[in-house]
Amino acid sequence: MNTLLTFSLFLLLTLSLAGSSMADYKATVFNNLPGNANLTVHCQSAGSDLGTQTITYLHDFSWTVSNLLNCDMSWGNVKGNFDIFDPKRDASRCAYGNTCFWRVKEDGLYLFIQEHKRLELQFKWPGN
Ligand SMILES: *[C@@H]1O[C@H](CO)[C@@H](O)[C@H](O)[C@H]1NC(C)=O
């Protein structure tokens, strides 16, 4: 076989493998709480503090992640801590267009599960 062709194929394969291992995902949080409540979200990923976001009613915010994304969330006097992206758990189950879509409601956090094509309750607010 032509050496140049073999080398080109090798290079192409290496580049595509390297590309897929560095895949970025998007974690989106949509505020669907009652009473126009604001949702406060404070996330950390891979030892970095990503700051605090206030997501107003019927708005969303997205983080681009490739590692675990852990967030403190609160509204009114309700508080919780959730892993909203975990590459082992989520890379295939919620990666619709590489996006983990969360809808935050009064009873808890719903995730769009690609295989079931619907939102499913994953985490309840503590105490609920
Ligand atoms: C939500 O936040 C916005 C902007 O930070 C603020 O103007 C609004 O009053 C807040 N709404 C409630 C219900 O606390």
Share in β-strands: over 45%
CATH topology: Immunoglobulin-like
- Straight-line distance between termini: 66 Å
Radius of gyration, whole Å: 18 Å
Q: Which percent bin holds the helix content?
A: 10-25%
Low-confidence stretches: 17-21
Structural class per helix/strand content?
Answer: alpha+beta
At CATH level 2, the architecture is Sandwich
CATH class: Mainly Beta
For the biggest sheet, the summary is:
5 strands, mixed
SSE succession:
HEEEEEEHEEE
What does this structure look like?
There is one protein chain. This protein has 128 residues and is α+β, with helices and mostly antiparallel strands. It has one domain: Immunoglobulin-like (Sandwich). 18% of the residues lie in helices and 48% in strands. The chain has two helices and nine strands; from the N terminus they run αββββββαβββ. A hairpin with a 4-residue loop joins strand 8 (108-113) and strand 9 (118-124). The longest helix has 19 residues, at 3-21. It is elongated, with a radius of gyration of 18 Å. The structure holds 2-acetamido-2-deoxy-beta-D-glucopyranose. 2-acetamido-2-deoxy-beta-D-glucopyranose is lined by residues 36-38, 54, 56.
